[in-house]
Design goal:
Elements (H helix, E strand, L loop, with lengths): L13 E3 L5 E3 L8 E5 L6 H12 L1 H6 L4 E5 L3 H11 L4 E4 L4 H5 L3 E6 L2 E6 L2 E5 L5 E5 L7 H11 L1
Parallel strand pairs: 3-4, 4-5
Antiparallel strand pairs: 1-2, 3-8, 6-7, 8-9
Length: about 160
């Protein structure tokens, strides 16, 4: 799929989530949503990002937005990740990477001269109207949650 752009309708989804059950975009219809894609539970940058969003979750909730993290990890791994780091953001399991593909974040990456497919750390701010209001590709974790919160408050 072509990359999504600002103003596009955010593709809906329903995925298994940490703690059991599922999470869907339509469940938050009429509210803004922060949807962030990350490569893997319990790695340095992914942990830092999840902890940053968790630390500001009260502010995101005050602004009316849930924060949903998505990775290809399964629910069991998400549950361990949540417990280990006392996370309170929603973590969705995109094991077949269908959502990552739909949002255009499943990309060819390279490390140490080896190429492979993986999630490009990307955040989408979805407006209450269901349209993409802001996109942060190739996220650098330091200060990112704060920047997303400021953009959410400016909606």
């Amino acid at each position: 799929m072509a990359d999504l752009t600002i103003g596009d309708i955010a593709p809906d989804f329903e995925l298994p989530r940490d703690g059991g059950g599922t999470v869907s975009l339509k469940a938050f219809s009429g509210k803004p949503v922060v949807l962030y894609f990350y490569p893997k539970d319990d790695t340095e940058a992914c942990t830092k990002e999840a902890i940053s969003f968790t630390g500001l979750l009260g502010e995101f909730e005050k602004a009316g937005a849930p924060v949903i993290g998505v990775s290809p990890d399964n629910v069991k791994k998400h549950d361990k990740f949540v417990k280990k780091h006392a996370l309170s953001v929603i973590l969705a399991a995109d094991e077949d990477t269908s959502l990552a593909n739909l949002y255009g974040v499943w990309k060819e990456k390279s490390m140490y001269g080896r190429t492979y497919m993986g999630v490009e750390r990307t955040t989408f701010l979805i407006g209450a109207d269901g349209r993409i209001a802001r996109i942060w590709p190739k996220v650098k974790v330091n200060g990112h949650a704060e920047e997303v919160l400021e953009s959410l408050k400016a909606l």
